């Protein structure tokens, strides 16, 4: 069973990389990609745990990007990068820039939250492993530990959603630049959970063909189609697009830990032939045996 999208506590998952791999093994996952947001920090530990638990590890990154659509609107796009060279300077620098901006942004959100809740940046930091990528889930976990909300999910619904008065956006690289950076580092790029913000009930003709055309033109290698957040009405459209442009298609869980999100390891899977295409197209990193 192949699951190519999962998070550890090196970003916003709740399991350490070792626990993540152990839980994957328990769930029957035989090949697992560790894809923390904007970092490769969990790779080494996951690879060691993979050997101990007979799970093949595909190291990856979920890169936060932003794509301009129209003149002054931009949307957040997550690009999964499989097997890029983790030492590639251009990629390393861009990820570092994103992570630093995420810290500044989280501090700003804490300052806004502090107007209404007794939260401090130190409280947020105290529960994060050294060097892990900071995101809204860390703020959610802090609010849960303070007893403000019962769960992470509740924190998002009531307080941390993107239209909330506490929301601050962060810097992200342009999606097309990210695709080029990933390719330059020998990695394979797959758009994560496409159309996650697509309004329920919107018609197929509203699907942003132009948006995909730009990404494919920039060298996008694949589309994550089987994911619980991809709207059902969009799946066939995305499959047709993949066939037309000879793109890889994947299916994955986007697991964040048992209490991190409802997503369960192995709930969506990738076909072996598609994994093989990723391995064939990647040249940035060879998983050591
Ligand atoms: P950020 O990148 O800091 O804006 O935070 C977005 C992250 O929050 C995503 O990567 C998700 O993993 C997580 N997230 C979004 N919505 C929810 C939710 N309802 N419950 C739990 N986690 C969520
Ligand atoms: Fe996440
Ligand atoms: Fe994502
Ligand atoms: Zn993810």
Description:
This protein has helices at 17-26, 43-53, 89-113, 121-126, 136-145, 152-160, 175-184, 209-217, 232-244, 272-281, and strands spanning 2-3, 31-37, 56-69, 73-82, 173-174, 188-191, 222-226, 248-251. The chain is of the alpha/beta class and 289 residues long. The protein has a single domain (2-281), classed as TIM Barrel (Alpha-Beta Barrel). Strands 1, 2, 3, 4, 5, 6, 7 and 8 form an 8-stranded mixed sheet that branches. A hairpin with a 3-residue loop joins β3 and β4. The longest helix is centred in the middle third of the chain and has 25 residues, at 89-113. The model has no long low-confidence stretch (mean pLDDT 95). The structure holds adenosine monophosphate, fe (iii) ion (FE) (2 copies) and zinc ion. One fe (iii) ion is lined by residues 7, 12, 37, 256.
Short structural summary:
With 289 residues, this protein is of the alpha/beta class.
Produce the secondary structure layout:
Blueprint lengths: L1 E2 L13 H10 L4 E7 L5 H11 L2 E14 L3 E10 L6 H25 L7 H6 L9 H10 L6 H9 L12 E2 H10 L3 E4 L17 H9 L4 E5 L5 H13 L3 E4 L20 H10 L8
Parallel strand pairs: 1-2, 2-3, 3-5, 6-7, 7-8
Antiparallel strand pairs: 3-4, 4-6
Helix pairs in contact: 1-2, 5-6
This protein binds adenosine monophosphate (AMP), fe (iii) ion (2 copies) and zinc ion.
The site of adenosine monophosphate (AMP) has 9 residues, from helix 5 and helix 6.
Number of helices: 10
The unique ligands bound to this protein are:
adenosine monophosphate, fe (iii) ion, zinc ion
Tell me the name of the CATH homologous superfamily. Metal-dependent hydrolases
pLDDT < 50 runs, ≥5 residues: none
How many angstroms separate the termini? 20 Å
> What is the rounded Rg?
18 Å
Q: Overall 3D geometry?
A: globular
Q: What is the CATH topology descriptor?
A: TIM Barrel
- Specify the structural class: alpha/beta
The major pleated sheet works out as: 8 strands, mixed
Q: What share of the residues lie within helices?
A: 25-40%
């Amino acid at each position: 069973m192949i699951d190519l999208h999962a998070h550890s506590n090196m970003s916003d998952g709740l399991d350490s990389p070792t626990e993540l791999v152990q839980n994957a093994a328990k769930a029957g996952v035989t090949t697992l990609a560790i894809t923390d947001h904007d970092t490769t920090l969990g790779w080494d530990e996951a690879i060691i745990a993979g050997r101990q638990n007979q799970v093949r590890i595909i190291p990856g990154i979920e890169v936060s990007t932003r794509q301009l659509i129209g003149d002054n609107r931009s949307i957040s796009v997550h690009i999964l990068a499989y097997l890029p060279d983790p030492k590639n300077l251009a990629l390393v620098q861009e990820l570092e820039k994103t992570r630093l901006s995420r810290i500044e942004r989280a501090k700003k959100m804490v300052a806004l939250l502090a107007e209404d809740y007794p939260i401090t940046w130190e409280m947020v930091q105290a529960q994060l492993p050294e060097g892990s990528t900071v995101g809204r889930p860390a703020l959610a976990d802090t609010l849960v530990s303070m007893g403000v909300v019962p769960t992470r999910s509740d924190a998002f619904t009531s307080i941390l959603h993107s239209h909330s008065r506490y929301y601050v956006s962060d810097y992200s690289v342009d999606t097309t630049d990210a695709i080029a950076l990933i390719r330059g580092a020998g990695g394979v790029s797959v758009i994560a959970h496409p159309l996650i913000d697509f309004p329920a009930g919107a018609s197929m003709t509203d699907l942003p063909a132009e948006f995909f055309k730009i990404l494919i033109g920039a060298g996008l290698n694949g589309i994550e189609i089987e994911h619980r957040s991809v709207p059902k009405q969009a799946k066939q459209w995305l499959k047709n697009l993949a066939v037309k442009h000879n793109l890889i298609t994947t299916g994955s869980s986007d697991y964040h830990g048992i209490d991190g999100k409802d997503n369960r390891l192995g709930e969506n899977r990738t076909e072996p032939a598609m994994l093989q295409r990723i391995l064939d197209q990647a040249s940035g990193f060879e998983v050591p045996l």
